[in-house]
Amino acid sequence: MLAVIVDFEALPGKGDEVRDALQFQARNSLEKEPGCRQFDLCADPDDPHKFFLYEVYDDQAAIDAHGRTEHYAVFRARIDPLLKSRERRQMVRL
Length: 94
Fold this sequence. Notes:
This protein is of the alpha+beta class. Helices cover 38% and strands 37% of the residues. It has a four-stranded antiparallel beta sheet. A hairpin with a 6-residue loop joins strand 2 and strand 3.
């Protein structure tokens, strides 16, 4: 299994919108993608502009399929203009 970890920082004043977009994406990924096994969303309790995602997929094919979904395209169009930064890494789950 593979884990995808993404850190997000919202632009000033956009934390609520980023949180809403991330929640939309988490629900859709879990409900619509059979290869998505886990999709956790966390918020920094000290900074309403910082978020962290932890996603677990069956394999690289499931991650690739995730990136081709309609809901992912909608999510990226919605969230990208709201972000100060986005950092992604991928790891093998032990």
